[in-house]
Design brief:
The structure is a homodimer of 360-residue chains. With 360 residues, the first copy, chain A, is α/β, with parallel strands linked by helices. Chain A folds into two domains: 199 residues, Isopropylmalate Dehydrogenase, CATH 3.40.718.10; 145 residues, Isopropylmalate Dehydrogenase. The first copy, chain A, is built from twelve helices and 14 strands. The first copy, chain A, has a ten-stranded mixed beta sheet with strand order 2-1-3-12-11-4-5-10-8-9, with helices on both faces. A two-stranded antiparallel ribbon of chain A has the order 6-7. A two-stranded parallel ribbon of chain A has the order 13-14. In chain A, helix 1 runs parallel beside helix 12, helix 6 packs across helix 7 and helix 11 packs across helix 12. The longest helix of chain A has 18 residues. Chain A is globular, with a radius of gyration of 21 Å. Chains A and B meet through strand 7, helix 6, helix 7, helix 8 and helix 9 of A and strand 7, helix 6, helix 7, helix 8 and helix 9 of B. Strand 7 of chain A pairs antiparallel with strand 7 of chain B. The structure holds 3-isopropylmalic acid (2 copies). One 3-isopropylmalic acid (IPM) sits at the interface of chains A and B. Chains A, B: Pathway: Amino-acid biosynthesis; L-leucine biosynthesis; L-leucine from 3-methyl-2-oxobutanoate: step 3/4. Chains A, B: Catalyzes the oxidation of 3-carboxy-2-hydroxy-4-methylpentanoate (3-isopropylmalate) to 3-carboxy-4-methyl-2-oxopentanoate. The product decarboxylates to 4-methyl-2 oxopentanoate. Chains A, B: Belongs to the isocitrate and isopropylmalate dehydrogenases family. LeuB type 1 subfamily.
């Protein structure tokens, strides 16, 4: 099984080193090959997603991705900026299904902004469509405004769009996930859109409703995106699976992640139709703390576990990693982002080593 | 001074009745004229925004709006649904600037989902552009997908767009508001966009940066919308004024309102270039509790205060209402939505009467 290791920028290399330690400790037939991506790749070869990196990703069974982005690259033209590597990989590999769990680990409940009773035991899954919507819709660009009170003025524009088969396949992912999370039957899917305003959302809502006929055991509810942003704050535990488009999913998955109070713990998976996937922590590249050895590697380590489960068909190995992470938390080890009175503050490498030890 | 009173649906008529009591108690030369809107207007005359209602709004100095929407009307075709009245009024009156304060009133801090220290004293202002963006952009509709892997499939699409003058005028509103909130100089504006992905956002960011040259005393920061959704949860008090487009503003203003824990207290103003405005509570029509006399009228009463300040040039009268609301809260009066141990539970009318009494 071939795995492309793309560490990226900021804390990316540090957290990736720990995830690699953990993968090696599993003693599975994994072939790891590393390549630069993001700002690091731009610095080395003039492009955030060099051909060789893309080729490596294409032929791998799965990609383990660190994080990209650094203030150093903020002034580059957009097509050379680090985040173009993420968009490019999603598009090139057809990674249409982004799974983002928002889980509040029991020993970390206090770290949330929310009152403990609202987040204790939180375990929801955001399913975000990742290759469509306004992210890639054409036409887009600049033009003189074609009409309205400011006709002729300089205008920026983008196209939001979804086609029926795109909505169908992501809806299926969400309904299947609801079943899987609930012992094979049942569960709830909340489909989030803005159907009171957008044509794209009207199609979205129609198609999700149709696909639901194949999943009568799963409850389906529809919610407007503004209301979803509120309900996540008010009562996050009322959700089970949320399914939504690329743009709304970008916003809501980050809001949900932050609600848990420990975004340094949250992995994510982005899958294509062949089960190939890219796995990355939900947090960013945190250039402000890069190189200090204090970043939390657990989200990346848990992303490696998702990789084993979703792309490499080794749920047993995934569970071993997850158990090991639970154990180091139970032992009281904490990187600074999740530290609290009465626990033991450790650095990035010490945390990685502890997970390796717990695996044995 | 002519005021159009549009009560609407659900709890709209009940909360509006209390605001009207308060306005009458001011003994100002106000001429109030009422008209149906939303589902109530559809039921009476077949359209959510009848010609007569629109005409009344046009000739008024200000519109006081209750709320619209009810499950009864969910099956209507979109152009007849209650919320079309709001979109129609915004468009017809050119109400481009939506001001939504998110304030945590001291005695209600405990009602928030967030830990008290994160929201105590919260006072931020969201400035949302209200007549542009993907809400009204053309073209929009259904078509066979023009390209991509699913070319030819049924597709829904919308156009996001902003022109330079539209961004300029809303940016000015935000910078002016920052100064006003900070004693005439200074303050901070956070401009929220998705410039790493959207062309519309790139123009937005350029123009806001340009307009900022006229406000060197105000700090400007740019933030991606996904990050803004997180930072609002993590540290809402780090914001002062947020300025953003129609779609992102819809989501973030509701998220921010819910953070305060007392959305039943939050007014809003929607202004045009002539200072004419529509004023409405930030909460919805709550059909589930309509007719029970338990809805909180304070957001509507505080919307009337905003109306006096922004459209009727009577800041003195606005302050009187705001003081009266503070006083009834200090006296411990609470509608059920903000009730807690040790306070006195009152109904809609009793709350309105208490505000009137406190005015004297
Ligand atoms: C970097 C950016 C293009 C990206 C996105 O918006 O998808 C990021 O925010 C994410 O959610 O992975
Ligand atoms: C009802 C709907 C069209 C409206 C909007 O999205 O603008 C509402 O959510 C609001 O924020 O006033």
């Amino acid at each position: 099984m071939k795995i492309a290791i793309l560490p990226g920028d900021g804390i990316g290399p540090e957290i990736m080193a720990e995830a690699v330690k953990v993968l090696n400790a599993l003693e599975l037939p994994l072939e790891l090959a590393s390549a630069p991506v993001g700002g690091a790749a731009y610095a080395a070869s003039g492009h955030p997603l060099p051909e060789a990196t893309l080729a490596l990703a294409r032929e791998a069974d799965a990609v383990l991705f660190g994080a990209v982005g650094d203030w150093k690259y903020d002034q580059l033209p957009r097509h050379l900026r680090p985040e173009q590597a993420i968009l490019g990989l999603r598009q090139a590999l057809g990674l249409f299904a982004n799974l983002r769990p928002a889980i509040c680990h029991a020993p970390l409940t206090h770290a949330s902004s929310l009152k403990p009773e609202l987040v204790a035991g939180l375990d929801i899954l955001i399913v975000r469509e990742l290759t469509g919507d306004i992210y890639f819709g054409q036409p887009r660009g600049r033009r003189p405004a074609p009409d309205g009170a400011f006709a002729g003025a300089d205008e920026g524009f983008d196209t939001m769009r979804y086609s029926r088969p795109e909505v169908e396949r992501i809806a299926r992912v969400a309904f299947e996930a609801a079943r899987r999370r609930n012992g094979g039957r049942g569960g709830k899917v909340t489909s989030v859109d803005k159907a009171n305003v957008l044509e794209t959302s009207q199609l979205w809502r129609e198609v999700v409703t149709e696909v639901h006929r194949d999943y009568p055991d799963v409850t389906l509810e529809h919610m407007y995106v503004d209301n979803a942003a509120m309900q996540l704050v008010k009562a996050p535990k009322n959700f089970d699976v949320i399914v939504t488009g690329n743009l709304f999913g970008d916003i809501l998955s980050d809001e949900a992640a932050m609600l848990t109070g420990s975004i340094g713990m949250l992995p994510s998976a982005s899958l294509n139709e062949r089960g190939q996937g890219l796995f990355e922590p939900s947090h960013g590249s945190a250039p402000d703390i890069a190189g200090q050895g204090i970043a939390n590697p657990l989200a990346t380590i848990l992303s490696a576990a998702m990789m084993l489960r979703y792309s490499l068909q080794r749920p047993d190995a995934a569970a071993r990693i997850e158990d090991a992470v639970r154990q180091v938390l139970a032992e009281g080890l904490r990187t600074p982002d999740i530290f609290s009175e009465g626990t033991r503050r450790v650095g990035t490498a010490e945390m990685g080593n502890a997970v390796v030890r717990a695996l044995k």
